Amino acid sequence: MDLGAITKYSALHAKPNGLILQYGTAGFRTKAEHLDHVMFRMGLLAVLRSKQTKSTIGVMVTASHNPEEDNGVKLVDPLGEMLAPSWEEHATCLANAEEQDMQRVLIDISEKEAVNLQQDAFVVIGRDTRPSSEKLSQSVIDGVTVLGGQFHDYGLLTTPQLHYMVYCRNTGGRYGKATIEGYYQKLSKAFVELTKQASCSGDEYRSLKVDCANGIGALKLREMEHYFSQGLSVQLFNDGSKGKLNHLCGADFVKSHQKPPQDRIVYYYHDADGHFHLIDGDKIATLISSFLKELLVEIGESLNIGVVQTAYANGSSTRYLEEVMKVPVYCTKTGVKHLHHKAQEFDIGVYFEANGHGTALFSTAVEMKIKQSAEQLEDKKRKAAKMLENIIDLFNQAAGDAISDMLVIEAILALKGLTVQQWDALYTDLPNRQLKVQVADRRVISTTDAERQAVTPPGLQEAINDLVKKYKLSRAFVRPSGTEDVVRVYAEADSQESADHLAHEVSLAVFQLAGGIGERPQPGF
Ligand code: 16G
């Protein structure tokens, strides 16, 4: 380690004194102007992690659904997973070290993790379309090079695409080519093959309108379009040509406000009375898991399928999955990494957050078994095995990927001849409401039972229990956000009015018992 060079370069990416940040649910996120030093240091950390794992590590510069002014960074581990928890702690220590302590922290991490500093390091970098991202990714590169690491800068990529690149590079190209063309080819080939089996295909092309939240998705879907010579026509909305990133659009906006974006969104429709219907991650999990189950029955395989959700999953979805579809459902804390981890316990783990983050995971043994069956089985069984094989290829195994999910959903709808309305009619969501409350320090709220129960502050859970009792089919919980400085409140009940009231009353309880600041929460939305 050339400590002199590190100190010199670090001074060019100096940390604002006293700034404390936390490696949260999805890495560091805050106002872009506070992140230069974090980027440089994550470049350093990625090199150490790469040396330790003797693998390529990814660094993604993005703040995902946050406002355009924010930015963020997260590291991607060798098999495309989120960074290991012990390294999240190192990331937090390194990001928060004052200039004069930085070297010591760096050495501490290397020693604790027994990093062989002579080992080569390779880091791949991607970034979103935020105006601040290019300069920030340059700071990551500065960090990588000063520690002697080599790198490849992919430039503009979606986060799942970077996960894909990392996975491909660390599996010797067996999974796919670590290029953007490789990604498009893999997905489009599987999609075209899968939808060939649809009896109603032919000239009945599906046409899909996609809300791209004025972000990277627009660019990447446009690049991908010409790989689908047939089978799918995609029209892009909120494509970044005029609107602001994530402003009044995007899946997060639509899910939390339960209304359409200024333009269009993936999977929503208006019924004959003009009512807005959102088909969220819960419905997606239902469609995918039921289709996978049908295919397994056809092939005659009894593999265990599990569905993983969070506390935000609509109560009706959980009931439908358990009681009608007879699949086991598990609940974890919010954040892809928690769901992903749980889903790995099954032969086939389908996980989706209500906000649409998710995927299906297939264990390596299952993948091999299915590929063999596709070669060996007869007729109908063989067809089902082939379909399953294509679905496995379509899902980006390295991460939940909205583009993969969209293609799988489109294929399933085509194969089953289902309209979006018929899909939505599988079950009816319980009315629900999400709110935010400002408090002085959101860490005063701690939770247990996959965030469904508040442990602190004292009295809050009892207050919520009493409020919930007043309504039918009701449920409510609160949790500190992992991405914004707020406490989130969720409530559901038998009517929208009740859900709204309950959410408001719970917000007041949070405000009173957890140190609310600013204006008291007002009723009405
Ligand atoms: C991040 C998470 C997402 C989670 C959301 C919760 C990843 C890749 N993304 O976007 O899974 O639903 O945070 O945000 O992990 P919150 O803690 O602010 O409610």
Characterization of the model:
The protein is α/β, with parallel strands linked by helices. Helices cover 43% and strands 18% of the residues. It has helices spanning 3-12, 36-53, 85-96, 102-112, 133-146, 159-170, 180-196, 216-225, 250-257, 281-299, 315-324, 336-343, 364-376, 379-394, 402-416, 420-424, 460-469, 496-513, and strands spanning 28-31, 56-61, 70-76, 122-127, 150-156, 206-211, 232-237, 268-270, 276-278, 305-310, 329-332, 348-352, 358-362, 432-437, 446-448, 453-456, 475-480, 487-492. It has a five-stranded mixed β-sheet, sandwiched between helices. The protein has a four-stranded mixed β-sheet with strand order 11-10-12-13, with helices on both faces. It has a three-stranded antiparallel β-sheet with strand order 14-18-17, with helices on one face. A hairpin with a 5-residue loop joins β12 and β13. The radius of gyration is 23 Å and the shape is globular. The mean pLDDT is 92. The structure holds 2-acetamido-2-deoxy-6-O-phosphono-alpha-D-glucopyranose (16G). 2-acetamido-2-deoxy-6-O-phosphono-alpha-D-glucopyranose binds at residues 25-26, 64-65, 334-337, 353, 355, 357, 481-484, 488.
